[in-house]
Amino acid sequence: MKSPIKTVALALISVWVLVATAVAEAPFNDEIPDKYTVVKGDTLWDISAHFLAEPWLWPEIWHVNPQINNPHLIYPGDIISLIYIDGKPRLTLSRGRNIKLSPQIRETTDRQAIPALPLEMINSFLSRNRVVEPGVLESAPYILSGQNRHLLTGKGDDFYARGDFSEAENAYGVYRNGGAFTDPTTNEILGIRAKDVGAGSVKTIDEDIATLKATRSIEELRIDDRLLPLEERKVDASFYPNSPPDDIEGLIISVEGAVSTGGMLDVVSINLGERDGIEIGNMFKIFKKGVVVKDRIQGDSVTLPPEKAGLAMVFRTFDKMSFALVLTANLPISVKDIARNPES
What we know:
Layout: H1 4-9, E1 35-37, H2 44-51, E2 79-85, E3 88-94, H3 119-127, E4 130-132, H4 136-139, E5 142-146, E6 152-153, E7 158-162, E8 171-182, E9 189-206, E10 209-217, E11 221-222, E12 226-229, E13 249-255, E14 261-262, E15 267-270, E16 283-288, E17 292-294, E18 301-303, E19 307-317, E20 322-329, E21 333-334, E22 338-340
Antiparallel strand pairs: 1-2, 2-3, 4-9, 5-7, 6-11, 7-10, 8-9, 8-12, 9-10, 13-15, 13-22, 14-21, 15-20, 16-19, 16-22, 17-18, 19-20
């Protein structure tokens, strides 16, 4: 049986069935099955790993079956087969017995499609932690006091905040300044980490003083914590694995929840964003910088080639930076590791 960690890890990338693009050599494993029947508990990444050395390249060797109404969905009982078209290996899908073929899309209530992404792993990170421009937190409403002049507030308690409540929002997230994201090469400030600590609902507003009830608290809310309107973010499970711009190269600028290093399923930030052409679903190979060694024969110093450390997928982008999820890690992922196009 698969371990829970492995099962989650293998669910991280969607294998959306796109129109096949020709490739010189498909990245198949040395030993692959002719057919594979999807079973309950499988994941899309798990299935692709049966066939491919680089599972995220699944769409490139997929042959679309015109009888499949919505090839974006794969269900338990479906059969994935290895076939050859013009001498090139391709994978194709045929539906199990419980899915009827039809010229119209049907909704099935008895079975659920194989998940593309385990939303429970990053949903809170996507919808709560934020990156804001410098000055945003400083100008936001702030916690003035807890009920009965308490310095700390927890879930269910009332608290008071002061600031501009002219937009009359019903609910606010409570954030703490987590420091700046800084480009290690240029020293440019890429954004400010707004660390999520809780949320509150507005009870009353009296000019610039609002009374709120703490509806959620990851840790106790403090005086001077800042309030921002809650972000309405719909978390999309549809992640199309794809390559970033060809010649782009960036650096890991932080590992969430770690002092310096991380591993599989950790969230990392990269000093590349929308202004650099980065999109959700972009894949990056992570490399350790080559170390400098002494050549005892020639007497000089030589920098060794970079070592591959892992693979990460971008799941949220900002103007100047991005967040990515580490999918595989054969070495610890560290700040200042190199992020490159996986096909370079």
